[in-house]
Amino acid sequence: MTAVDTEEFVEIWRRILAPSGISWVLFENGTCVLLKEPEGELAGQAVEILGDFGPVRAGGPAGDFNVLQLKDGTGWLVTGHHPDVVTYVALDEPADPSHLAVGIHGRIKRRQDGTALCVVHVEDRRPSTD
User: CA–CA separation, 6 vs 97, rounded Å?
Assistant: First the structure.
């Protein structure tokens, strides 16, 4: 398993989200919070969302996930119980490429990000007010 560094994560998310025009915040392990209605300080807004929806609690909806394979074949997106919290999983990260293994791996990464809350990049796509 090869670790993905921050610059790679940023480029991956830019490629995925380029057509959307949505602002987003990236966390250390590849979890991205999409801010469709950004207000104020984006990192703070994303930390609040991921702090509430990142940690996994047994028996609740936080354990649920869906796995989407990227069309370019570079990995998967793992979604959870908040529609704007998505985690990227690279092809070589899980030892087992089954949807279950990828989903669990993505959920673990989301839990790590939702606990540490370490923002590594903010992509502010709001129109400038100049």
Answer: 23
**Domain assignment of residue 128, yes or no:** no
DSSP at 2: P
Number of domains present in the structure of the chain: 1
Token pair of 34 as six digits: 């999409």
Q: Average pLDDT by consecutive 10-residue portion of the chain (130 residues)?
A: 77 92 96 94 97 78 83 93 95 93 95 96 86
No. of H helices and E strands in the chain? 3, 6
What pLDDT score was predicted for residue 1? 46
> What crossing angle do the helices spanning 42-53 and 99-116 adopt, rounded to 10°?
120
Q: Does residue 107 sit within a domain?
A: yes
* Gyration radius from the chain CA atoms: 14
Give the CA distances from residue 104 to residues 15, 97, 98, in Å, rounded to whole numbers and listed in that order. 24, 11, 10
Q: Record the pTM.
A: 0.90
Q: Using an 8 Å Cβ cutoff, are 102 and 78 in contact? A: yes
